[in-house]
Amino acid sequence: MPDRTEDVIDQLHALMHLFKDRMRQALNVDGGGLGPTEARALRFFSHHPGSTQQDLVAHSGRDKAQITRIVQQLMERELLAREPDPNDGRRFNLQLTKKGLALQEAMHTQRKKLAADMLRDLSKDERQQLGGLLERMRESAEGSSTAASERIASR
Amino acid sequence: MPDRTEDVIDQLHALMHLFKDRMRQALNVDGGGLGPTEARALRFFSHHPGSTQQDLVAHSGRDKAQITRIVQQLMERELLAREPDPNDGRRFNLQLTKKGLALQEAMHTQRKKLAADMLRDLSKDERQQLGGLLERMRESAEGSSTAASERIASR
DNA sequence: TGAAATGGTTGATACAATCAACCAATATTG
DNA sequence: CAATATTGGTTGATTGTATCAACCATTTCA
């Protein structure tokens, strides 16, 4: 009897690469040349409007400096805007601009389309099943986090 | 009723990040400081002994030059060795050295351990199920490859 | 008030990845 | 067979992403 344990990981790998490739491809057309990191940052601030750079640092695990630069780029493109926090002179609260919102919306749609396409051969029940299994897998996997890898996966 | 379609993708993302993080972490201890790219290259030549660099280029989709450099590094560390192809003066056939095999074996074990750990809360049946679902997902996803993304996911 | 912590910026630097140009060997074709 | 194209591989230049360290301004805490 086959083990499957490793197969599962391989499948995950393969699937993610497929998805990433297509997403990147879609971004180049649809996302005005946003890199994947920028896209994720935009996504983050769209899900957590008014957050600070520091929040993204904590959430993504990337370096402060890098986040600063990404945010700068997004602001230069006028996809993101910031205003000083009235209560704390160090913080800046970030949120998407109109333009940013529109782009984010477009990317979200693309993302959904891609996801739907990859799942098109599974029945509704099977999707539910798959989602459930993956979720349980993730939960138990996260549970056993080693001290050094305490950062949150980037959604 | 919830859609789940996007959830599934998110779960995939999260899982891959978890796995990658831990694998990287494990590599730093166990893999003598191999980067993920080098580790994958080693893995490839262990699965396809006697292949050429070009084979890896085709399989991984990365740039020729980069592959050359990775292979060079692996050879400097004496994990990989090459000999000229007797039938074609351009080719070099590559295979792991003893040292390379040992390392690869150690990494393989780690990998299996990680995978097993992530799946520990699923029953045997559920693993089978999950594997099957993922495989079908991958197959149908690969089917609809767009012209520009014709490269093979890196296993 | 002085010391430490926090949010953010900047400069130097490392590294992976890609592109373009190139060499040597082989295949193709007229 | 000679000229040409293709293939496997290498090298140099360049870009993009990430990290580290030092730093400034503001806030918090002792």
Description:
2 copies of one chain form a homodimer. The first copy, chain A, has helices spanning 5-30, 36-47, 53-60, 64-76, 98-118, 124-143; strands spanning 80-84, 92-96. Chain A is mostly helical and 155 residues long. Chain A folds into 2 domains: 5-121, Winged helix-like DNA-binding domain superfamily/Winged helix DNA-binding domain (Arc Repressor Mutant, subunit A, Orthogonal Bundle); 122-155. In chain A, helix 2 crosses helix 5 (98-118) and helix 3 packs across helix 4 (64-76). Chains A and B meet through helix 1, helix 5 and helix 6 of A and helix 1, helix 5 and helix 6 of B. Chain A binds a DNA duplex (30 and 30 nucleotides) through residues 35, 37, 52-54, 57, 62-70, 72, 88-92.
